[in-house]
Amino acid sequence: MPRLSRRLMVQSLMVCTMVLPGVWARAQNATSLTAQEIVAQMQVMNAERLAALEHYVSERTYRVEYKGTGGDHAGQIVVHAEYSAPDQKRFTVVSESGSKFICEKVLRRLVESEQEAGQKRNQMQMALSTDNYDVVLDGEEQMDGAKVWVLKVSPKVDNKFTYRGTVWVNADDYGVMRVAGEPAKNPSWWINRASFDSRYVRRGEFWLPGRNVSTSHVRIGGEATLTIDYGSYQMLAGKAVSGVATKASVERTASVVSPAAQ
């Protein structure tokens, strides 16, 4: 593959790894909340669920398809993922297929980058909060048989860990069911446009990643699509989640000092 073609492909593919939004969630059903109150409630319940989740194991499939300069190329790896509270993640590559270049230079680096995204500082940057984002309630919809709030979000600071787009929040338990948008900061001049669509699944009382599709477009032609299927979650263990967020706890969350000021 020509050197320029490889460079364009890597720039295009790596954009897909920039936004892997995480888990948020829960509380009482209400119809008159503001966007800020919804987000505050989500933060309260997200903290509860994070504290309650103890362990899970899943088999994830990462696949990249590139079409453009240098021809069509594809690569896939299967990864054994294991999480143990409070923040230990272990990833083991089980198998590889397709383009060796894509597997080594893109997909393996993506798996490594998830360790960076899991660090506490970056979790705060990605977290949907009124410290990090301007949020507007855009209405209500039905999704997978559930009522959801539709939030339009835009970051207060553009960086590679923030995004702008739409978030769908379950009105029954404040779990995020879907996030779609684009990275707040374009990571490369070669990339003309990038987008992502992340879906979440409920397993017991917990919301976990289900499927992510990220697409990037190269300025002079070419498109790369990254798909992550998170598979079924096994050995899921956790403590009980109360499901009750008090008014006082929501108010404390809504008025919390910005992470940047801590």
Describe the structure.
The chain has 262 residues and is α+β, with helices and mostly antiparallel strands. The chain has one domain (3-241). The chain has 5 helices and 11 strands; from the N terminus they run H-H-E-E-E-H-H-E-E-E-E-E-E-E-E-H. The chain has helices at residues 3-15, 35-52, 100-117, 120-126, 247-254; strands spanning 53-68, 71-84, 88-98, 133-143, 146-155, 163-170, 176-183, 191-203, 206-218, 222-229, 233-238. Strands 1, 2, 3, 4, 5, 6, 7, 8, 9, 10 and 11 form an 11-stranded antiparallel sheet that branches. Helix 2 (35-52) crosses helix 5 (247-254). The longest helix has 18 residues, at 35-52.
Which class of secondary structure composition applies to the elements?
Answer: alpha+beta
Q: Provide the domain count.
A: 1
Shape: globular
Radius of gyration: 19 Å
Overall pLDDT = 79
**Helix and strand pattern:** HHEEEHHEEEEEEEEH
Beta content comes to over 45%
Largest sheet: 11 strands, antiparallel
Number of strands: 11
Continuous helix count: 5
The helical percent reads 10-25%
What is the CA–CA distance across the termini? Answer: 48 Å
- List low-pLDDT spans: 17-30, 244-262
